[in-house]
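User: I'm putting together a small comparison set for a docking exercise, and I want a reference complex before I start. The sequence is below, and the ligand is flavin-adenine dinucleotide. Could you produce the 3D structure with the ligand included, as structure tokens?
Assistant: Of course. I'll restate your input first, then give the structure tokens for the complex.
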Amino acid sequence: MTVLLPGSLDEALQAMASHPTALPVAGGTDLLVHWPQRPELHRQTFVDLSAVQELRPLRWTTDELVLGGLTTYWDVIEDGRVREEFPLLVEAARQIGSIQIQARGTWAGNIINGSPAADGVAALMAYDGVVVLDSTRGRSEIPLAEFYSGYKQMRRAPDELVTQIRLPRREYSVQIFEKVGSRRAQAIAKVGVTVTRSASGWRVVAHSVAPFVCRCTALERCLESEASVGSPDDLLPAIREDVSPIDDLRSSAAYRERVMARVLYYGLLEVCPSFH
Ligand SMILES: Cc1cc2nc3c(=O)[nH]c(=O)nc-3n(C[C@H](O)[C@H](O)[C@H](O)COP(=O)(O)OP(=O)(O)OC[C@H]3O[C@@H](n4cnc5c(N)ncnc54)[C@H](O)[C@@H]3O)c2cc1C
């Protein structure tokens, strides 16, 4: 195993460019969990990002909250302003693993790990997060809602690092993050639904339902139209348009579809006059 330890962002981008198969390491919480089962990792080159100070800070501009490529869940939980303006980030972060995982795990790592059950990705997507990728070839900025194309398939070249995640600052009238798991802590989601409403419209994000975390645009149109919804089953046609639920070790496709409809219906009953 070779570990490169760049001391600046420039050095990190150079290391990624000159070692095309290198894997960046942030908190290591996803990478190291596979260590015993994946002996090929033991011969891998890693680029340890921990000394790259430029990737650490979370910062505010007039229009945006900008998370760095090394911002952890704990950085977000501790920030009072995030709690006020982006409460679903804090809610998602508090439900990720344990305090130890929250202290080490990063939002960027959650995005690149690409799990369909990624709680952090769901919250970021519901706030219209944009992924900023840098390499020695330049920069690309991709809305998170357009980042994935299949299970662990994403628009990232091997030499690119996530250096920022940008979130537009908006007034929200609805903010809901629901994670259904087998217990309240240390559980990976069986079904997750995140909903926001702002002047830019409704956002509905499903996680641990489809092969990747995704926006549900048919459900968003249904909410926008204020169509009458009298029971969870009234949401099933839109859910079926948006996602083909997965069957896996955590739950069945039928369970995911039914639970997603119920979680959405009861979550929105209080806030949507068209729900009764
Ligand atoms: C016990 C346990 C419980 C967990 N519970 C949850 C949970 O409830 N919900 C949940 O969503 N996740 C959970 N996770 C998964 C994990 O903690 C998160 O996905 C975490 O955010 C990963 O971040 P990291 O910094 O540790 O990533 P790492 O393990 O360092 O890296 C993960 C992947 O991202 C790549 N990467 C990292 N940083 C960058 C970057 N800046 N640019 C490009 N690529 C990068 C790495 O090469 C690797 O492919 C759990 C993990 C464990 C071990």
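The longest strand covers residues 172-180. The longest helix spans residues 253-268.
User: Thanks, that's exactly what I needed.
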